[in-house]
Specification:
This protein is α/β, with parallel strands linked by helices. The chain has a five-stranded parallel β-sheet with strand order 2-3-1-4-5, sandwiched between helices. It is globular, with a radius of gyration of 18 Å.
Length: 205
């Protein structure tokens, strides 16, 4: 399997990566790479699901919001560009983690086609199996309560009002037919245990 970084890797790096995957096969562990990208509205419960997935698959979680918040703490004003930059930084971290042979869970809204295409391209570049997990909260009252109660210590611009969340819902791009075949939906208003069984079917052990 070729190395997946856009930068050309040294022969030693490629040899090391191949050796690590060979060791994994000898140990009875799947050598395939997985890129699991979450999608959903703020407050739906994406980070909770990402944590469960990462624990189950011994995966690396790459979360966009903490990256953008770090930019704000560094003095950058919240703009469309800082939001885009956070996704691009997340892409770099995900690429490097995949290069090292780790399963990656992307904790991000991914509600527009541009963001989704970035993860499709990365999965193809890294020869990784792409899976989508759409996280929803079907109980509107519960969703609003979660949104109002959460305190992540982030910049206020990263904590949208319910009105903003509702508007984002209207702007969410539909899933393509190809994506539907790779998609699992999780409703965090329902007990998670039974639903998470769906996820363990495609998370590597």
């Amino acid at each position: 399997m070729p190395c997946c970084s856009r930068r050309q890797k040294s022969p030693l790096c490629c040899l090391l990566l191949a050796s690590l995957r060979t060791l994994g096969r000898l140990a009875g562990v799947s050598a395939s790479l997985s890129l699991i990208a979450l999608s959903g509205l703020p407050g739906a419960g994406k980070s909770t699901v990402a944590a469960v997935l990462a624990h189950d698959a011994a995966a690396v979680v790459v979360s966009v919001d903490p990256i953008e918040d770090a930019m704000h703490r560094a003095g950058l004003m919240p703009t469309h560009e800082t939001g885009l930059a956070a996704y691009l930084v997340a892409e770099v971290v995900a690429r490097e983690s995949l290069t090292l042979g780790h399963t990656v869970v992307v904790d991000a809204a991914n509600y527009v086609e541009q963001a989704r295409q970035m993860w499709r391209d990365l999965a193809q570049e890294c020869a990784a199996e792409l899976r989508w997990v759409e996280v929803v909260c079907s109980d509107e009252t519960l969703h609003r309560q979660r949104l109002a109660a959460r305190d992540r210590g982030f910049d206020a611009s990263l904590e949208p009002s319910w009105e903003c969340v509702w508007a984002r819902r209207a702007d969410t791009a539909p899933w393509s037919a190809a994506d539907q075949d790779l998609l699992v939906r999780i409703d965090t208003a329902r007990p998670l245990d039974a639903q998470l069984e769906q996820l363990t079917r495609f998370t590597p052990k």
